[in-house]
Amino acid sequence: MNRRLYPLAVGNFAVGTGMFVTAGLLPPVSSDLNVSTAAAGQLMTVFALAYALLSPVLAAVTAKLSRRRLLLVALGVFMLGNVLTALAPTYPLVLAARVISAAGAAMFTPTASGVATALVGPERRGRALALVLGGMSVSSALGVPLGTWLGGVSGWRATMWLVAGLGALGFAGIMALVPEVRVAATTGRLAERFAPLGDRRVLAVLGTQLLMFGSAFAAYVYIGSLFDLPLAALLWAWGVGAIVGNQVGGRLTDAYGPRRMVLLALVASTVFVAIIPLVGIALPVALVWAFLWGAVGWLVAPAQQYRLVAVLPDNVPIGLGLLSSAQYTGIVVAGLMGGLAFGGWGRVGVIVLATGIGVVAVLFTLVTYRSEVSGLGGDPAEGHGQDDEQPQKDAVDHEAGEAVTADVAQEPRHRRVADDEGDHRGQDRRSPGGRRFSADLGELQEPRGQHGRDGQQEGVLGRVLAPVVQQQAGGDGAARARDARDEGE
User: Fold this and answer.
1) Shortest CA distance to 427 belongs to which of 399, 395, 405?
2) Same domain for 68 and 137?
3) How large is the C-alpha radius of gyration of the chain?
4) Are 42 and 86 in the same domain?
5) pTM, 2 dp
6) 3-state SS assignment for residue 99
7) What angle is formed at CA 58 by the lines to CA 57 and CA 60, rounded to 5 degrees?
8) What is the pLDDT of residues 276-319, one digit of tens each?
9) Residue 401: which domain range?
10) Which residue of 344, 391, 417, 452 is 20 to 30 Å from 102, comparing CA positions?
């Protein structure tokens, strides 16, 4: 894999650690700042709220800025926020510093994905994005438990210094390895970024995302107060499960369809939250529970992205940005309501709240999400969009002329791809071994029931990210991709 991608993954690892590690630091934060555990939990709430609100605003403000410079500015702001958090003597100043950290994170993660697509050729873009975004999920299995352990041994401020140090590693790596890249010009008008909210189908997807994260994080934020067991071990098991769920979610969505996967994950996650009082009896039982809870929680991510692409095939980058904002808004709701529930009724209040939000999420999704979705088709497992049906329109890169078949309902039985220069559209190319090769994302696609050589989220990842790849790394299409590679070499 291209070594220039690793600093971007390290940056996302730092961002993920800084975001989620506060769930493991509530007792030391509460003791040091002389606030309640519920108030300490608002450190994550403030971070999430700032991220949700600032992400679209900062994207518009920095639209014309050099991408390499923006990466460095973003990590610089993120590091500054964590240093100020470590030094802040009072609770209000700590909250203010968390807002600064969130501003850096909101600029870094989306930009890193766009730069990753421009640093590699079309045949490796899918794997490049998997690597860069994987830094975020790996942080939940490594960075968060490490930060939690360090906070217990040396104090929570030491953990903030650790996060700042991780950000510095990413900063140095970008300085040394990541070249300047050219990406397609994007609009800086804020109104256009919120235009999709006028579509009720988009609101349905975002509503599920908000409720889903509201339920999960109402329990996650206060997990240290829900168990009398080693917290670092529980967070490690949850993080490992998150990685596994994130990796297999794409394949399962291909096999069974997004609607089934969304509902399955919502129901399972709600059940896991409801049985928390039963699994705290022994550490091995709790570790298995944490692993499974993390897995089902992250299992739904590809299916939710699939849904959004289905209703916004021509506006995917902005749509995914709104999905991310809905996710962080759900964490805000979780933090605020969870704090009230914990302060008033303790553990029972948090568990009842998280379970209740999960039930609402299931009912909301059952009412608003039907498999007959316009645009990209319904669940492949339910018989929609088979080869005998008329294909839906292609999502076309208007500048480069490269096309990606947007009819995901035909996947994985039939993938139509465009070649590097945009010629021979709609032709199905197969290797002698029967694998389907996508020139856009470079994913080796196996026929149904087999696994590709690289194998991770291959079907859904390609379909979800193809429009993002084309809009973010567009411009002169394949020529620009080659220019970026030549420049880097």
Assistant:
1) 405
2) yes
3) 22
4) yes
5) 0.70
6) helix
7) 70
8) 999 988 999 999 999 999 999 888 887 887 888 788 877 766 77
9) 385-472
10) 344
